[in-house]
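It is worth pausing here to work through a concrete case rather than discussing structure prediction in the abstract. The textbook approach is simple: state the sequence, then state the predicted structure, then interpret. We follow exactly that order.
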Amino acid sequence: MAFDELIHQPTRLRIMAFLARLGPDAEVEFGRLQKSLGLTEGNLSRHLSKLEAAGYVRLKKGYRGRRPRTWVRLTGKGRDAFYAHLEVLEAIVRGEEADAAGRDQGGEQGLRPRPSPG
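Step two, the predicted structure:
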């Protein structure tokens, strides 16, 4: 398992989670994704470009009536990467894999208990 820095960025993680919930062959119109996540057009475009370059999402351009539209879907590679990243996060939280994120390779405990107040 490998920690995926590309997916881990908060906005991209939200995009990937939204798309994963849609199902394996589903796609969403860009505007709906933008509104659902509360992002600007430019911000969403920038993050989708990075995910597309990695092969995690596919963008399809077309028209609805006379209006240009863009649809977004998660690829098989993107789905696999997303769920693998979730497994790494779960392992980190459980403390089962201290070096899951590529940290603490020297054998030290990666997660320490949170000190109790006062």
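Step three, interpretation. The two ends are 38 Å apart (CA to CA). Strands lie at 28-29, 57-64, 67-74.
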